[in-house]
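Fill-in record for Alkyl hydroperoxide reductase C.
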Amino acid sequence: MSTSLINTTIKPFNATAYHNGDFVEVSEQDLLGKWSIVFFYPADFTFVCPTELGDVADYYAQLQEMGVEVFSVSTDTHFTHKAWHDTSDTIQKIKFPMVGDPTGRITRNFGVMIEEEGLALRGTFVINPEGEIKVIETHDLGIGRSAKELLRKVQAAQYIASHDGEVCPASWQPGEETLAPSLDLVGKI
């Protein structure tokens, strides 16, 4: 990715997802009006991927309470997502839409396609209700992500969105002090 997608608006897409026992249509419109996480992973029936998706599933109720929807995406089909959901105890915990992207359009829109393999990198995107990307995290295929840290990043993004002029320092947690950048702070931190 040569340019950052931070603060850009998500591009249009249409796809089919497996969600709560049904196949449903999903588009960029489903990400508007609420906070969203788009969680790319390489492939179903693999090794690190179910640990990550299971971790996100464990935090899903808390994310929902915060007004956040999660969309997991791989270049598999929605049929493959259903088969994986039906056969894996870990994946059966998932209550969020599992989006199929067999053409790679969504994966390319977010800049996480590994072209020579037809797979997605481990890419996480936090998107505000206006459809702007506020957080990007991309990992090598062998490095799993932490849903607990993702939750903290969403909390920080939501906080600064509603508190103009404030920023969240490293390792900030809800309820802790934030910073208000100003001339008075220069050299004092």
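KEY FINDING: The CA atoms of residues 125 and 136 lie 5 Å apart.
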